[in-house]
Amino acid sequence: MLKPVFFFFPQKGDGVLSSHEFDQGRKKDGLLKSPSSSHLAYGILDIPPWYLCIFLGIQHFLTALGGLVAVPLILAKDLCLQHDPLTQSYLISTIFFVSGICTLLQVFLGIRLPILQGGTFAFLAPSLAMLSLPTWKCPTWTLNASQVNTSSPEFTEEWQKRIRELQGAVMVASCVQMLVGFSGLIGFLMRFIGPLTIAPTISLVALPLFDSAGEDAGIHWGIAATTIFLIVLFSQYLKNIAVPMPVYGREKKCHTSKFYLFQVFPVLLGLCISWLLCFVLTITDALPSAPTAYGYLARTDTKGNVLSQAPWFRFPYPGQWGLPTVSLAGVFGIIAGVISSMVESIGDYYACARLVGAPPPPKHAINRGIGIEGLGCLLAGAWGTGNGTTSYSENVGVLGITRVGSRMVIVTAGCVLLLMGIFGKIGAAFATIPTPVIGGMFLVMFGVITAVGISNLQYVDLNSSRNLFIFGFSIFCGLAIPNWVNKNPERLHTGILQLDQVIQVLLTTSMFVGGLLGFLLDNTIPGSLEERGLLAWNQVQEESEDTTKALEVYSLPWGIGTRFCTSSCAQYLPFWPGEGKVEVSQLSLCPWDSSGERPWSPTDTRM
Predict the structure, then answer these.
(1) pTM of the model
(2) Quick one: pLDDT at residue 56?
(3) Would you say 76 and 82 are in contact if contact means Cβ atoms under 8 Å apart?
(4) Average per-residue pLDDT in the chain?
(5) H-helix or E-strand containing 164?
């Protein structure tokens, strides 16, 4: 078994953490338990030394880097920005900055677990569907680099009016998420959402993007294939190879320690090496210099002026692209993304709690976490990232690798994101990544996201023809229906323009179509709770027995709700902590036994 030993923090005892022992400590009576604090270098309430917080915070930033950079780069083409890397760099800096703000809000006022916040792929499908409407399709002249003057007022208005439309849709949809979170409705909704709804929804977040990723990779398949090979090599074949690294510790001072470099930074290493390869091929003129030749966009000098044009420091601010606009089509589409994002975030909350040795999150913490994520989406819309925010699953995985679950590390990561957002040259550097390198990264990332969605089927009975039909039919229709609507938009005609746009955006959003079909079929076709996977699904959510520890971890900071603001009226708020509350941390408000009946328990949640 793998035994991670990381140079980022001093190990306890003999300096070796056994993954086998860790897993054994988490299993008891066949159920997955939270790891004890003895298996962690730093628990959720511990505060590591400041220099370790900085190193670990930078590591979390680098882990989230691929997802953070990918979102604005995917949106760039439909925002008419494919030939304006300087504006792309502004979007990247803005998403860094807003992600830092949202991370700090989530750690201090939200779920209070060490979870990083960042851009979400769940919003991409409805955003691209909205931008594909005839009203928002890019003019032909913006697709030709020779005709684009990025400093002209006409071009600036073309891309800004599109991102303002996205801003307005995200801001209105975020209010729905805040309502669902702060009102406690999320618990009620989760009673009807099981693995057969979540699996097609998450799988269809990435599947429809194959065309965009393939086009970028097709700029130069050799470079794209090299990027894919390197990422797969580092993440799958070399992940167990430890690299000796110099380290300074309090006890041994200067010495070497083994660090699983390839396991922690496979995407970053793959991007950097492919980027360097493109640079070498550019200076040796191995890549064509004619703009119309195949492989020209693999050159590193096609965007070389971005670094010189970008300011050293740029402070993003709300409304920097103008006053947001709102349309019904955009709002309904983004709401579909909000639902998918909420479901995924709840899974991240439970996974994070297990990895850092914390009790499963009580309902008031989950409600608060979802509400704060909605607030984060509102801020992302106001700042103009063109996207929302959500919890990052990749960084939850880092907690399990490093065995450092301290909240202070994520606070540091949030501050690092803020600084990277202000430092304009950072965003500009990532905007110069050659297009085929980006395409190769997208192919790998989208494949992983699809696999994550399918992995939810582990809870259901895959020998059941009922379940196979629901999943297969939902996936197929989630691809077929949007494809037909995109090719035949004129067939959707009700006589009301706004209604036509709403229907078109929803029916061209694959995850909405597939998720809705999965939801309807799973809740209407007869099947036992065990067959549907709801028994195994709910067993993953564990009852929080240690209420004292739960109150310590999930209560608001500075004694809010426990020493201050302890009004009896506040205790009835679904998101408010309190010593007198008895909680059951399950996705379903109603626990079920194997017979399908609902037994009464004195610890059932009182709404």
Answers:
(1) 0.75
(2) 80
(3) yes
(4) 79
(5) helix 153-183
Sign of the Cα torsion 266, 270, 272, 273 reads: positive
**How many beta carbons lie within 10 A of that of residue 589, not counting itself?**
17
Q: Which two tokens stand for residue 253?
A: 């001072």
Is residue 468 predicted with pLDDT exceeding 90? yes
Rounded to 10 deg, the angle between the 424-431 and 407-422 helix axes is 80
- Kindly report the backbone phi and psi dihedral angles of residue 245, in degrees, each rounded to the nearest multiple of 5, phi listed first: -130, 145
Backbone angles phi, psi at 313, to 5 degrees: -130, 135
Query: For residue 458, how many C-alpha atoms fall within 13 Å in the half-sphere facing its CB?
Result: 6
Q: Return the pLDDT at 547.
A: 62
| pLDDT, greater one: 186 or 2 | 186
Backbone angles phi, psi at 423, to 5 degrees: -80, 100
Q: Cα torsion for 226, 230, 424, 76, to the nearest 10°?
A: 50
Two tokens, residue 51 = 């220099």
Amino acid at 258: K
Q: Name the CA radius of gyration of the chain, rounded.
A: 24
Backbone torsion region of residue 460, taken as left when φ is above 0, otherwise alpha when ψ lies between -120 and 50, otherwise beta? beta
Q: Provide the pLDDT for residue 559.
A: 67
Q: How much is the pLDDT for 57? A: 86
Sign of CA dihedral 418, 119, 265, 93: negative
Report helix, strand or coil for 477.
Answer: helix
Burial class for 491, CB neighbours closer than 10 Å (0-12, 13-18, 19+)? exposed
413 band by pLDDT with thresholds 50, 70 and 90 = very high
DSSP strand pairing (243-249 vs 390-391): unpaired
pLDDT tens per residue, range 424-453:
888 788 778 888 988 888 888 788 778 877
Residues 311/427, Cβ–Cβ less than 8 Å: no
Residue 260's nearest CA partner among 532, 564, 573, 19 is 19
By the 8 A CB rule, do 317 and 383 touch? yes
pLDDT in tens, 105-155: 999 999 989 989 998 888 888 898 888 888 888 888 888 777 788 888 888
**Dihedral sign of CA atoms 233, 235, 241, 243 in order:** positive
How many Å apart are CA 61 and CA 117, to the nearest integer? 10
d(CA 185, CA 344): 16
What is the structure's pLDDT at 561?
60
Full DSSP string of 172-219: HHHHHHHHHHHHTHHHHHTTS--HHHHHHHHHHHHGGGHHHHHHHHTT
DSSP designation for 118: E
- Give the DSSP H or E segment for 451: helix 435-454
pLDDT, tens digit (0-9, with 9 covering 90-100), for 491-530:
888 878 778 888 888 888 888 899 899 999 999 999 888 8
Q: What SS3 class is residue 257?
A: strand
Name the maximum alpha-carbon separation found in the chain: 76
**Structure token digits, residue 362:** 């009580």
Give the rounded percent of residues in the chain with a pLDDT score beyond 90. Answer: 23
